[in-house]
């Protein structure tokens, strides 16, 4: 363990992190896990918009094109060289396997060439750790609601790297449901920010879409039924040749999603007797979710925290923060580390 506590840089650790799990190519440099010296993100949103979603093969090719430049830009902006880096953190799952392999192969090659420790990071854990960057005072234990395009989890964070999953989606992730509903209304991609924006001009009580709570005292989620209810409504209106007010549909759908997320999150926080609730993942940028959770959570005496918008979406800074704590816990990966597209939170590498 002593070798882990010998940074090269006068008492502080320098982490180089790489993220390529989906359609953002990102590299970041951090000091002592929480201070971001650089966080470079090359987004592919404009590339995938015309397809209505992420095309895995296209994403992988774009990662190959961008990754070397992104890493170099991150090092340059942080004013460090590879010789200053104490460890290299990299996402190895969950995500698109081809996209993951680009970042992972690059990180392994750099670790081998420079004899630098490699630290594999679970992408979901990275989202949770984004809050450590945003809120320097934050320490476990706390409850985290992870909401993104591919994941919906309620996680009790007992300690750094120690997680108890209280609930997860049984079907669609919340961000996936947003994208599918937006596509059905012809709103474009990505659906989450678009629905959030147009909902501001809609009536959330115009339609009563179902709130799916599942079994009593159950913290799992299900959004496929709600999504189907919205699609059925849209089809019914079209068949009857009745005009659809997309702002009202969007607002009503979003209200149904947020009601379930907020109620289950607060209930779980009470169960675990924590005083802090944090939100993580791309959907954590949703303005209505932030507003409602803050209002309802503070009524119940909870402190509500969430990252800035840049740290909500996929980025390497959050991976670097998770890598730092993994490294301190002695979780160093070998060069046989492979991409695991369906990696679960808490699974060992």
Automatic annotation (TrEMBL):
Q: Where does Fe cation bind?
A: 123, 127, 314
Q: Ranges for the Gcp-like domain? A: 35-320
A GO BP entry is: tRNA threonylcarbamoyladenosine modification
Note one Pfam family from the annotation. Answer: TsaD
| Keyword terms, alphabetized | Acyltransferase, Cytoplasm, Iron, Metal-binding, Transferase, tRNA processing
Enzyme class, spelled out: transferase
Tell me which positions the record assigns to the signal sequence: none
| Localization per record | Cytoplasm
Q: What is its EC number?
A: 2.3.1.234
For the keyword Ion transport, the answer is no
Entries under InterPro entries matching the protein: ATPase_NBD, Gcp-like_dom, KAE1/TsaD, TsaD
Which family, according to the similarity comment?
A: Belongs to the KAE1 / TsaD family.
Protein name (database record): tRNA N6-adenosine threonylcarbamoyltransferase
Source taxonomy: Bacteria, Bacillati, Bacillota, Clostridia, Peptostreptococcales
Q: Which gene encodes it?
A: tsaD
């Amino acid at each position: 363990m002593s070798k882990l506590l010998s940074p090269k840089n006068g008492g502080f650790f320098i982490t180089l992190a790489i993220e390529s799990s989906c359609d953002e190519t990102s590299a970041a440099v951090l000091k002592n896990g929480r201070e971001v010296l650089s966080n470079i993100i090359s987004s592919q949103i404009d590339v995938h918009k015309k397809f209505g979603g992420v095309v895995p093969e296209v994403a992988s090719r774009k990662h190959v094109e961008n990754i070397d430049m992104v890493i170099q830009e991150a090092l340059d902006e942080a004013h460090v060289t590879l010789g200053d880096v104490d460890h290299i953190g990299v996402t190895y799952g969950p995500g698109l396997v081809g996209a993951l392999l680009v970042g992972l192969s690059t990180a392994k090659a750099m670790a081998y060439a420079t004899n630098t420790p490699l630290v594999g990071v679970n992408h979901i854990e990275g989202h949770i750790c984004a809050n450590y960057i945003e809120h320097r005072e934050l320490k476990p234990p706390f409850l985290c609601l992870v909401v993104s395009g591919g994941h919906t989890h309620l996680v009790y964070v007992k300690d750094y790297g120690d997680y108890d999953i209280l609930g997860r989606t049984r079907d669609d992730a919340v961000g996936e449901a947003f994208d599918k509903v937006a596509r059905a209304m012809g709103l474009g991609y990505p659906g989450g920010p678009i629905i959030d924006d147009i909902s501001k001009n809609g009536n959330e009580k115009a339609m009563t879409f179902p709130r799916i709570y599942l079994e009593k005292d159950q913290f799992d989620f299900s959004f496929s039924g709600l999504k189907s209810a919205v699609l059925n409504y849209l089809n019914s209106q079209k068949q009857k040749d009745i005009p659809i007010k997309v702002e009202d549909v969007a607002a009503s759908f979003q209200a149904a999603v947020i009601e379930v997320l907020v109620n289950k999150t607060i209930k779980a926080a009470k169960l675990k007797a924590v005083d802090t609730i944090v939100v993580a993942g791309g959907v954590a940028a949703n303005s209505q979710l932030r507003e409602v959770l803050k209002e309802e959570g503070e009524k119940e005496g909870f402190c509500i925290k969430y990252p800035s918008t840049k740290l909500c979406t996929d980025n390497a800074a959050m991976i670097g923060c998770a890598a730092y704590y993994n490294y301190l816990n002695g979780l160093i990966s070998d060069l046989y580390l492979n991409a695991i597209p369906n990696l679960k939170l808490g699974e060992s590498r």
